[in-house]
Amino acid sequence: NVVLQGRALNKQYRQSTEQTGIVLHDIDIDVHAGDFTVIMGASGAGKSTLLYVLSGMDQPTSGEVYYQGARIDTLGERRMAQLRAKEFGFVFQQPNLIGNLTLLENVCLAGYVAADRDGGEVRTEAERLLERMHVAHAAHRLPSEVSGGEAQRAAIARAVINHPGMLFADEPTGALNRRNSDDVLDLLSELNRNGQSILMVTHDVRAAIRSNRVLYVRDGELLGEFPLGVYRPDD
Length: 235
Ligand code: ADP
Ligand code: ADP
Prior knowledge:
The protein is of the alpha/beta class. Helices cover 34% and strands 25% of the residues. The strands form two sheets. The chain has a six-stranded mixed beta sheet with strand order 6-7-8-3-9-10. One adenosine-5'-diphosphate binds at residues 144, 147-149, 176-177, 180.
């Protein structure tokens, strides 16, 4: 059951420092519903660009993107923004929380704004999510008053408050120490076990081993499935 599909995706930047400017080259990709899919590759390989193109944050130079069978790369900016708000959740390297709102308010705001939901229902669910993300003790603190790991756990709660069909994560552990990284990965794994489809970009093998499917990108090309068995998590 394919939830997200890229077909013959090319991305070329006019003013890239690279001579050709080609960042994605003829990429075909199927992301399956219920999977925890990881895209690995070296820095500069094109991983983030692929995630942005698949999630409608950026447009391919050519090619097609389908979500649940419907083409989305041709939607206008407004309809794309509506689709993203309703169907997609995002986690980045930095939590990007709003600085003058508490963690709980940050999570609630995503529920009110994006989905036009009932206020009480959103608040109850936001509190429950912060509990599941082991950050309930900090619900009423500002982002500046919590650790990097705590802020990132709240950012994950915010990303899933509207039950996205697809959760996109771009190096979600990139700014965290090892213990906090493991916490964040535990939470993503738990969300996935409960049915959340996840597409995560990382160059961190410790992150990749949590997934059930690893794709490898090199110089803008998708090399296909990566044999994870050759790695041991504690090497
Ligand atoms: P990765 O996520 O694998 O580190 P990126 O997708 O961020 O790789 O970048 C791939 C290549 O595209 C890099 O060479 C980068 O310099 C280039 N690139 C990314 N964004 C832009 C942009 N807005 N303009 C020009 N080049 C870009
Ligand atoms: P690291 O900063 O190395 O990733 P943690 O995020 O676990 O490790 O932070 C360790 C401790 O440092 C936290 O328990 C917290 O008390 C404090 N801390 C970290 N970041 C901040 C911050 N932005 N503001 C206040 N305290 C912080």
